[in-house]
Amino acid sequence: MKILNTHIPTKILEARNKRITANDILESVRQILDKDEQREKNIQRTLSEGSDLSNNEFNIDLLSSEKIFHISDIKKICVLYRLRFLDSNYFKGALPYEALIKIKEIENTHHIELKGFKIMAPSKLFKLENADDPLLFAPIGNDYFYLIHSWGKDLHPFRKLLMWPFKEIENLLITLALFSVVLTLMVPDGLFSPHTTTSEYIMTFFFIFKGVAGMAIFYGFKKGKNFSSSIWNSKYYNA
């Protein structure tokens, strides 16, 4: 007589059916899925409505040190790359599903309900009042924040260099001065006299610098622009 091999899936199904009926287990799974769906909706509502909560009751022993950042570190990067750090309710981009999964994982691990979400991203990704790469944070307390998830493409490698003139007024003046020097050197020799002297070069430089600076100021006021150090955490378009 041939001895049949034991089929484990069949055996586990038989054991389950002795414990609970198929209809009951389907109902239990449906309740679990409905509860999880409602939980995701609650998280999305918290993200879209925002919260004034300044800290979450994290279990410090379960936090990853490389994901903890002080507000001064966040400000430094925002200023360097001209980014904003604002409440999640100002974010107009779509949060990936992976972000919700990360939030649920952290809530399950720490047995808390996260609130007070912040997002670091370029200005164009926020719904600013009067008006590339988001990072989702939750406050820990005492100006410390925990990085939950990041998504999107990396910033362009030249973004830091391109945004350097807008960091502070000193940076802008240096940029305008260097640009004016280049324009001065492009002025043909002998345009104002047979042989251009050093004093004439200096006068030409100041004339060009005044014109370039005037256009920069006009553009800045017209567009309501400000320096990165002033807008990194501002919710206003023309802050």
The gross shape turns out to be elongated
Helix content range of the residues, please? 40-55%
Oligomer category: single chain
Q: Element order, helices and strands?
A: HHEHEHEEEHHHH
Estimated share of beta-strand residues:
5-15%
**Structural category:** alpha+beta
Mean pLDDT metric:
78
Q: Biggest sheet: strands side by side, in what order?
A: 1-5-4-3-2
Enumerate how many helices there are, as a single number: 8
Task: Supply Rg.
Answer: 29 Å
Biggest sheet statistics: 5 strands, antiparallel
The low-confidence parts are: none
Q: What is the terminal separation in angstroms?
A: 87 Å
Total strands: 5
Record the SSE blueprint.
Elements: H1 8-19, H2 22-49, E1 68-70, H3 71-81, E2 84-87, H4 97-110, E3 118-121, E4 135-141, E5 144-150, H5 159-163, H6 169-185, H7 198-223, H8 228-231
Explain what you see.
This protein has 239 residues and is an alpha+beta fold. Helices cover 49% and strands 10% of the residues. The protein is built from 8 helices and 5 strands. The chain has helices at residues 8-19, 22-49, 71-81, 97-110, 159-163, 169-185, 198-223, 228-231, and strands at residues 68-70, 84-87, 118-121, 135-141, 144-150. The protein has a 5-stranded antiparallel beta sheet with strand order 1-5-4-3-2. α6 (169-185) crosses α7 (198-223). It is elongated, with a radius of gyration of 29 Å.
